[in-house]
Amino acid sequence: MPRPPVDPAAATPPGLSLFTRLVIEVDPVVSLGGPARHGERRFVTLRGGTAEGPGFEGTVLDGGVDWQVLRADGALDINAHYVLRSAGDGALVEVQSEGVRHGPPEVMAALARGEPVPAEAVYFRTAVRLTSGHPAWGHVNRTLFIATGQREAARVRLDVWRVG
Predict the structure, then answer these.
(1) pLDDT, block means (10 residues), the chain with 164 residues
(2) Could you name the CATH architecture of 15-163?
(3) Are 64 and 36 in contact (CB under 8 A)?
(4) Which one-letter DSSP state was computed for residue 136?
(5) Rounded to two decimals, what is the model's pTM?
(6) Which residues are CB-neighbours of 140 under 8 A, at least 6 positions away?
(7) CB pairs under 8 A, 24+ apart, for 132-135?
(8) How would you classify residue 10: left for phi > 0, otherwise alpha for psi between -120 and 50, otherwise beta?
(9) Alpha-carbon distance 148 to 153, whole Å?
């Protein structure tokens, strides 16, 4: 029996609310030596930063890593893993972020040279999972987040949004 068509007007998108803005200092990209099975494997060491927003205030701890695969189509697969410390109670929150960044070749080349690039010129999105064992932050274990990002020469800015 055929199914009735889906009515887009009947679907309700989830709401988004800003949770925090992360500004993370980063080291230069390190390549693992060129193209591999799925693209060029590389990583970026995260050197700490700040978290400011209505849902979380604190710091990004030094020592996280953003593992990347630069694909043949020019897109960059991102897999970052790092820790936040809450300013109010010192709670630690683990961050696991997977996403993609891409843009026109000339824009991506400018970005690779460390030149400023407007955020709207690059598609930079990640799915973010937060985890904490601290009682005050247990709600993040049950919530999904997404982020929009902007890469600069020596830092990354991520606006982290709570999915309602």
Answers:
(1) 85 95 97 88 97 98 97 95 97 98 95 91 98 97 98 95 97
(2) Beta Barrel (2.40)
(3) no
(4) G
(5) 0.92
(6) 93, 130, 131, 132
(7) 132/91, 132/92, 132/93, 132/94, 133/92, 134/86, 134/89, 134/91, 134/92, 134/93
(8) alpha
(9) 17
